Amino acid sequence: MPNAQTILLENATLATMAGEEPYGLIEDGAVLVDGDEISWAGRRSDAPACANVIDCGGRVMTPGLIDCHTHLVYGGNRANEFEMRLNGAGYEEIARAGGGIVSTVKATRAASEADLKASALPRLDALLSEGVTTVEVKSGYGLDVDTELKMLRTARALGDVRPVDIITSFLGAHAFPPEFKDDRAGYIALVCDKALPAVANAGLADAVDGFCEGIALSVEETEKVFEAAKLLNLPVKLHAEQLSNLGGAIMAAKHGALSVDHIEYLGQSGVDAIAAAGTVAVLLPGAFYYLRETQKPPVDALRAAEVPIAVATDLNPGSSPVHSLLAAMNMACVLFDLTPAEVLAGVTSNAARALGLDDRGTIEAGKRSDLVLWDIDQPGQLAYPLGFNPVAAIYRRGEWVRPL
Ligand code: NIG
Ligand code: FE
Q: Using CA atoms, how far apart are residues 94 and 97, in angstroms rounded to an integer?
């Protein structure tokens, strides 16, 4: 229940993530929280009078973190494939042999809605314990109308039992299910004419995603799905250029995609296209790490073109069983050469943008009062350790989720 009280959180180093300076840093800052919203943020000496003051003890405050790319609702697990890959099998090879996404499809179809929810909760809790207050969750392990709906309902239901906003993406265009192996056009028609309208009618998707890759959909197939999404007024985004450069990102940019994700193999023309479209580049170092990819995303070119860069866990049972956004931030620094300031923007302001949300991701008047206090001295420390969680307190929508 939102708390209508006005509270002044003072004596914090604010990483506002607003403005031009790295971190939008305000030393000795204060934030006035008015229920769901921040009503003022700035230097403590300029703070408005407030009867209700909380001393943040000089800790660092950031916006609530946003994990803008996960597949955290799924059945089964793929530990056997992890083992197979360590014995020499390739990710694409396993997928072509009927494993990979399709093996999770089988387990997800077989799982009840209650089982899916029960297995997703501890994964979600792992993210929330690190100050995540908004999580995107994709479908895409159903690949039939009923199971896609079941996944999205499950994802939405998680938001009813935990203090988090769940943003959902319909990913029916993730792969071809076994029953349509020899009828790709038939499956695309099912997605466009049946699954997508059913999902939209039920109000279960905030966006439409796809996987454009040799082992998944072609550019032309994905574009059909994007055209169907447009008719339903749903924004699009794409898993693109993860394993090869097919040109998915250029097509996605043409459709005004919110984001293109993975993009290790994105070339300069792709960078130019997403820059012109205002599309966010979502980097997923967990998948790069687990698949032992060697091709890095074109970070210098993205910077030069001023493409907003986000970072996410890609939490999924196959390519990225990563349950820590802080770990993904560290990996983005070590593996992709992002700076700690870039990765913090990548899980706050730019992650919000990747989800099409303009009400959160920075500490500014008018933004959502999703805030995290950290037991660190300066914000650069967040991406520095691996396997250490310095969360001190979490404040979401006008309420302490985890008090000081
Ligand atoms: O983001 N790239 C495509 N989809 C997921 C993983 C799918 C899987 O292996 O289950 C990803 O990596
Ligand atoms: Fe993914």
A: 5
